[in-house]
Design brief:
Blueprint (H helix, E strand, L loop, with lengths): L4 H5 L6 E4 L9 E4 L8 H6 L12 H12 L8 E5 L5 H8 L4 E5 L3 H13 L5 E3 L8 E5 L5 H8 L8 E5 L12 E6 L12 E7 L5
Parallel strand pairs: 3-4, 3-6, 4-5, 6-7
Antiparallel strand pairs: 1-2, 7-9, 8-9
């Protein structure tokens, strides 16, 4: 039975379709449909709600999800945290790849609900929360460096809690990441509102020695 998306996700829920992200066609997500005017329609639909970042599958999230699906050993059997989960694509991919526990973190309650609905749609199990836990076996973080406070936390305090696999679109003005780049993937946001970012770099950030 299809969930009542407006009840769960507000006004934007009425404009979502089940869609397969181009890089991860084996996954299905509730995302904005092609009938929404991305230039002006989102503002009309918002009705004073927060911007629906969760209604798009961002390029970095797709790239990181693709990496996990291609390399399930990255997360298999591990306790995984997905920071800034958005649509939940990375959390869903981690669960599909065999993570023992997936905790999707986002401050937006609608994002957390969208991630839960997308997990149900893909028949995998995840948990959601608004705050990162005290430790993890692997944190997954896609496109989180644009916000200064969050960037400082990820590259600083978070490293005391556990290792991080970071996906970054290298936006203009974002500082370079001084950790090993393990892969570069061509990716774009779907539906595409994120031009000209088309390349995503993946980095391994080790836990800081105590």
């Amino acid at each position: 039975m299809q969930p009542d998306l407006e009840v769960h996700l507000g006004a934007f829920g009425t404009r979502l379709d089940q869609r397969q992200p181009p890089l991860c066609p084996e996954l299905t997500l509730w995302l904005l449909g092609d009938d929404v005017n991305l230039e002006g329609g989102c503002e009309e639909l918002a009705e004073d709600e927060s911007p629906p970042f969760w209604a798009f599958c961002w390029g970095s999230g797709q790239a990181l999800a693709r990496h996990l699906l291609d390399h399930p050993e990255t997360v298999s059997g591990k306790r995984v945290v997905d920071l800034g989960t958005g649509s939940g694509i990375v959390a869903v991919a981690a669960a599909r790849a065999g993570a023992s526990d997936v905790l999707a973190v986002d401050r937006d309650p609608q994002s957390r609900r969208a991630a839960e609905l997308n997990a149900e749609l893909n028949q995998v199990s995840i948990r959601t929360t608004d705050e990162a836990p005290l430790d993890w076996e692997l944190m997954l973080a896609a496109d989180v460096l644009y916000e200064t406070g969050l960037r400082d936390w990820v590259l600083g305090e978070a490293r005391d809690r556990g290792p991080i696999l970071l996906a970054d679109p290298q936006r203009t003005g974002t500082p370079l990441v001084e950790f090993p780049e393990i892969r570069r993937i061509s990716s774009f946001t779907f539906p595409d509102v994120d031009s000209p970012q088309k390349q995503v770099a993946l980095y391994e950030i080790p836990k800081r020695p105590s």
